Amino acid sequence: MPIRPENKERYPKNWKDIRASILERADNKCEFCGIANYTIRENGSRVVLTIAHLDHTPENNDPSNLRALCQKCHNTYDAPHRAETRARTRAAQQNKKSEE
Question: Chain-wide mean pLDDT for the chain?
Fold first, then answer.
């Protein structure tokens, strides 16, 4: 996934080098499903591998925490975390409203 501007400072200056080393380790293939980088899927979409932080922490760039993933696998992997984050955000907003 692209780095969001608000998170850019959380990534190390050598992120491009780290990304390149993870792609090399993965032989330029998704480490979950095995699809190759820049493959064109049957639906016409182009696969571009991303680097996933398994613990969802951009500061943790240990190679054991990083995986080269296609967009589909990355989104699938992140879905439970995003749902949990949305639920916490909604709960915090509701608590804030009830305190007003």
Answer: 94
